[in-house]
Every structure is written in C-alpha cells, then in structure tokens.
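To: structure subgroup
Subject: Chain for Friday's discussion

All,

I'm putting the inputs and outputs inline so they're searchable in the archive.
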Amino acid sequence: MQRYHGCMDSSDAPLVPSREPAEDQVGRFCDAGLKRGLSKNTIKNYRSDLKGAIRWFSERTGSPLVWSDFFLRDVDDYRQFLCTTVRRTTANRKLAGLRAFLKWLAQEIDTWQSASVHSEPLPEVRRIISEPGRWARPRWLTVSEQATLNQTVQESGNLKDRAIIALFLYTGIRTSQLGKLRWSDFLISRERGRMAIYRPTYGDYAEIPLNQLVRQTLVALGYAEYRGSSRPVFMGKSGPMSRRRIEMMVRRYGEGAYIFDLTPLVLRNTFIANMLDFGVNPVIISDILGDPVLDLLRYYAPPEQEDLENAVEKIVYAVLGQERYRIQKPRGLFPAPPNEGS
C-alpha cells in the first residue's frame, strides 16, 4: 500500500489530504507540475488562479477552504463569479487550472487510501461558453479592491511604485505611454497639475489633469529636483523601465492585495469605469484617453434590455403625457464584492 508522506501533523503521522491546508496542497501540486516538465509560466498561472479561488471562498464564507468540499458544493458558484468579473477567456483559463488541480488531487487521495480503491467520478468543472455576439465585460477593480491595492502600495514605501500605480489608476495612461514619460512632460503647482502624453489614435499630444494624490506622489518622487529635464521619470537598470518590468511590478502588488489577475489594462479599465460610474461626461473621458466616444460606451457600458425598453417607452410618455409607471434607478458599474449581499 502506498502512503502519502508530504504533510505531517504534530504527532508526525501523515495527514489525510482533505485535512491538509489548501495552500499547502496548491504548493505540492505546483511542485509536481514542475517535475513533470510544465513551464514555469504555466505553474505561475496555476498558483495564482488557485490562490484566487481560495481568497474568493474565504471572503465569501469566512472559513478556510477544503478542496474536496469546494469541488462538490462551491465550484459552480465560483464559476458564476468568474462569469461576472473577468473575460470569458480568462475565466476558462482559471477553470482549466481547477480541472488540472482536481485531477491531481483525486490521484493523491487514491494514493493515500489505496492503489486498489476505485475512484468515484470527478465533479465537473464546466467551461464557460458565451452566446455569439454576447458582450464580455472588461475586468476592472471594485471599490473595495481599489482601497486594498492602494493600502498595499502605500505600505510598501516605494515612491516609484506608488507613482506608477497612481498614474495607472487615476489617469488611465497606457503602459507604452508611461514608459516614455519624461519630467518635462509634467507641470505641477500647489493647486493643480497636468501631464502631456501622446495619443496614437489622434496622432497628437494631450494634456491630462492630475489629481491631488498623483501630484503628491510625483513631488515625493523628485519633481522639484528634475522639473523640466529630459530625464525619464521611471528609470530601470539601464534606461527607462521596460514594459515587462512595469507589468511584473503591477502583478506583484496585485498578488500582495490578493488580486491575482491585476494588469496595467485592468487599472486603465478601472479608471474608465470610475469616471463613468461617477457621472463624468463620456466626451471628457474620450478626450483624455483618445478613444472614440461610441467605442468607449459600447465596450464599458453597453445598454441592457431594460434600457432599450425604457428608451422606446419615453416616446409614449412624452407624446401622450402619461405618467411613468417604472421607477428609474441608476445602474452602477461596480458589482458587489463576493462577501457582500450573500
């Protein structure tokens, strides 16, 4: 009989796999994948996606995750959560990682019990198949996720990283634009500030206003010393920071804030979603970002069926003077966090 010797309790006896901490099992799964020859990138994604599931469960229930119970009772709820928070391709990648982990976990349990024990059919981790033409919601951060990320960056004490995250989150700047920033692109005073960036869509430069938080981070980074110079704002080892280095930094802070799919694009999406949700004129957002207004609205705030019905009903109300029988409620872009309203 084969026994599993990977985890011991205080009495040095092997632990039943179902009693082993969830993150320890993820670690062993990733180690086993490396030994089988899986790429480091694949393992990195597996680890990040599985930790995301652990965090979702703990926020939702307030208790530690047990993988065997999760696959039997909670995987469909998690799948639905992914449907509403990330793109279909990203969600299916995360679900593929869960399927690989489930297969490995079933083999581990069989090995611990007995090689001769018949395994029951594995729970199904279904792919997400969207209807043709259905809108795929872009990924942005909820208000609580933004607060957690800001706190994580502040606690790091790294002035350069704080400035990068603030620019992404509060100006919607692209990674390619951020890497080319020079101190001469900024003009900051006590009351206001602005940043000049090149807009590839229009082939010109635009001046983007900077809020108080962004101004403070740039001043702390050295604006007074380098003002007007052609020195890159964000230096790497041998010149301006590369795109990959910026993306890795953002991902690292995301993992520190338990946001395991954080990218510069997610931060840009968050800036746009914030502006729309707080009632900023879409024309203003278009001028800042350099994206056409219609494309912006179709991508970030497509009309729902109720919006279309209300639009055609307005004609009757206006022409016949009838009172409206439906109460109009503003449609917030931000979904409730998993642990709220459950």
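Points worth raising on Friday:
The two ends are 45 Å apart (CA to CA).
The chain has 14 helices and three strands.

D.
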